[in-house]
Amino acid sequence: MQRSEQIPRYSLIEAEAAEGATFAAEVERGLTATPKRIPYRFLYDAQGSKLFEEICETPEYYVTGAEREILEARSDAIAEHFPARITLAELGSGNSAKTRSLIEAFLRRHGALRYVPVDISRGMLEASAVELLEQYPPLEIRAIASEYRTGLRHVRAETGRSKLIAWLGSNLGNLDRAEAESFVRGIRAAMASRDRLLIGIDLRKDRRVLEQAYDDRGGVTARFSLNLLERVNRELGGRFDPDAFRHRATYAVDEGRIEIALVSRRAQRVTIDALGLEVEFAEGEGIHIENAFKYSLEEIDGLAAATDMRVADRWLDPRERFSLNLFAPLG
């Protein structure tokens, strides 16, 4: 991999991450709790990330395609909100594939663009930078290798021009509603009055559509969930038999969330060598691993108001499954 100083028009900040609980500590804490749980962020090891990319291509998982439709159709309309050159910052940029419609729209409008991707993977940032800078010569990239909250401190320091902070892919839905409000407040703190937040938010809809999206017929989502047990086996000397668990995705209508769990098919006892831990499961007992919250348009308006912002514009895909929302600071 090329080093950052060898890539023209590219710089990178490696930000020190905030201290967080380790995988081992969270597994021990979660599997000795009632009910059992493991935080969703640990689904995304290297194998889990590859499986999630497969999920995005399944016919049932509409989120990626719906968001792509909006970006392809509406990126010029988004760019029209900015009369002068801007900085485009993206939280969780990955390979920046879904952001290219925006990049192209701003280059068409202004002729140049500073792009500030924030991602935990330095390797991913450098690989995508090589490709983007080759494809878009007027582009300048200032990458930040960090988790979101640390990265936002550096995004806040981008003050020379207006900023558009993009948080795409319905990542908001992984947070419960109080956590979502708190995190969006943190984004607001990184914004000046002229800045904007472009946030992808999945919408409430028919139970069957949602449950199929998170439990596809091909079983990719099930493999993604069960990889968490395989990760415990790989990294912590776990003795899980993944075939003794099943993936379950249920939509709780009143709460507006998909609840995902790994459910024990039988009564069993599992040893985790590195933790010196033996965990008992009753038949039908679950390990909660993820929630995916869905919003009504009114709830999105309420989120904006609660975080000292308003919805300045909004775009839906043609089937009205998904929303892109442009939040503007009040005052």
Reported by name, the CATH topology of the largest domain is Rossmann fold
Corresponding CATH architecture of the largest domain? 3-Layer(aba) Sandwich
Low-confidence stretches: none
The largest sheet, given as strand count, sense and whether it forms a barrel, is:
8 strands, mixed
Overall structural domain count? 2
- Overall geometry comes to globular
Instruction: For the record, give the distance between the C-alpha atoms at the N and C termini, rounded to a whole number.
Output: 45 Å
Let me know the CATH homologous superfamily of the largest domain.
Vaccinia Virus protein VP39
- The secondary structure category is alpha/beta
- Binned, the helix content reads 25-40%
* Assembly type: single chain
Major sheet strand order: 1-5-4-3-6-7-14-13
- Average pLDDT across residues? 94
Query: Using only CA atoms, what is the Rg?
Result: 21 Å
Count of alpha and pi helical runs? 10
Describe this protein's structure:
The strands form 3 sheets. An 8-stranded mixed beta sheet has the order 1-5-4-3-6-7-14-13, with helices on both faces. Strands 2-12-9-8 form a 4-stranded mixed beta sheet. The protein has a two-stranded antiparallel ribbon with strand order 10-11. The chain folds into 2 domains: 4-16 and 62-204 and 295-329, Vaccinia Virus protein VP39 (Rossmann fold), CATH 3.40.50.150; 23-58 and 207-293, no CATH class. It starts with 9 loop residues before the first strand and ends with a strand. Helix content is 35%, strand content 27%. The chain contains 10 helices and 14 strands. It is globular. The model has no long low-confidence stretch (mean pLDDT 94). The protein has helices spanning 23-31, 46-55, 63-79, 100-110, 122-135, 148-156, 177-189, 207-213, 220-236, 297-306, and strands at residues 10-14, 36-37, 86-91, 113-119, 139-145, 162-167, 196-202, 245-252, 257-264, 268-272, 277-281, 286-293, 309-316, 322-329. With 331 residues, the chain is of the alpha/beta class.
